[in-house]
Amino acid sequence: EAAQKGGYDHYMRKEIHEQPSALRQALGSRVDVNAGTASLDVDFPQGYLESIQEIQLLAMGTSYYAGRYAATLFESLADVRATPIMASEYSYTGGRDPWRTLSIAVTQSGETADTLGALREASAAGARTMGVTNTLGSSVTREADDALFIRAGPEIGVAATKTFASQVSTLALLAIAVGRERGALSAAAAREHLEDLTGLPGAIQQVLDEEDRIRETAHELADSDAFFFVGREYGYPVALEGALKLKEISYDHAEGFASGELKHGPLALVTPETPVLAVLTDGAHPQETLNNVAEVQARGAPAIGVTSGTLEGGTLDEAFEVPDAGIFEPLVANVYFQLFAYHIANAKGRSIDKPRNLAKSVTVE
Ligand code: G6P
């Protein structure tokens, strides 16, 4: 087993460090930056992409947060309504036109019962379906009309890490392809986003190189009462994912909020013992979020921010930078959150790869 961990103490840390290579696999042969195109081996019927009115992202756990990130990508790059739906709640939603809906099940394992259940319902109602998965031959690939592989390589740690980055990036390629097909995205804009995407392996490597510093911060804050993560737009799903990661493996209380939501309730929980971690990069409206962060600092909470390095006003207690990656900067910021969660859990001696009560793949509803 030690050999399989490739010199790392835990699969999770190994998988965090595998993100640059996983993304090269997901993107490499599919992207032609100069042409502004992404080829995905999915043959939609002629005219289908122009006809769709809604894209649904059906998923659970980390995959659901990847679906939330992707929903915003579809809305902004392809100008199509996109709705992330917690798959276990799918049965209780209505008012849709399935004939003009593309329902995408986002599932690393391809076996999550809640997600497969939602996919079956969508299909029965007449939607075209697609599985976005890491697992060749999984149930989702057999049941969906189309399959799109995220090519992340095996992920053993129960807490998903590299697959989140690969899900978002692969769905970004789809959003770009759909945006081009629907005439919503210019060739120049497509090129810019593809350049940002192909730069992700290098950008994430720079974050990984900062591991010592994030470990120190994690150790300083390890005994806090609770941890709050905040962000806007693309920073919001990353705040939710950052909190999920921390609670899964450290068993500490952690919650993610839209930064604008803080003053509508969560602020009552803020004390000097509740650090707030904020996504303050491009793609996450850093200046607005910084105002929200000032409110928690006024209550004595330590503020840790991940920035693009261009913030004006406001002083963070600790700042971490990400390289330029446009609207994918929050995805890069997420790597700091993964390392933060890992080092808090490790300092507490938790069972990182197999947290109590959790399973890698949940095959019951
Ligand atoms: C479980 C795992 C999570 C995962 C979720 C969805 O809860 O512990 O890490 O995000 O299932 O899994 P999937 O395979 O559908 O992506």
Automatic annotation (TrEMBL):
Active site (catalytic residues): K360
Domain SIS positions: 44-184, 217-355
One cellular-component annotation, GO: cytoplasm
Localization per record: Cytoplasm
Keyword Cytoplasm in annotation: yes
Record EC number: 2.6.1.16
Keywords: Aminotransferase, Cytoplasm, Glutamine amidotransferase, Repeat, Transferase
Chemical reaction(s) catalysed: D-fructose 6-phosphate + L-glutamine = D-glucosamine 6-phosphate + L-glutamate
GO biological processes: carbohydrate metabolic process
Root EC class: transferase
GO MF annotation terms: glutamine-fructose-6-phosphate transaminase (isomerizing) activity
Location (main, coarse): cytoplasm
Function: Catalyzes the first step in hexosamine metabolism, converting fructose-6P into glucosamine-6P using glutamine as a nitrogen source.
Subunit relationships: Homodimer.
Protein name: Glutamine--fructose-6-phosphate aminotransferase [isomerizing]
The species this protein was found in: Halovivax cerinus
Span covered, complete protein: 255 to 619 of 619
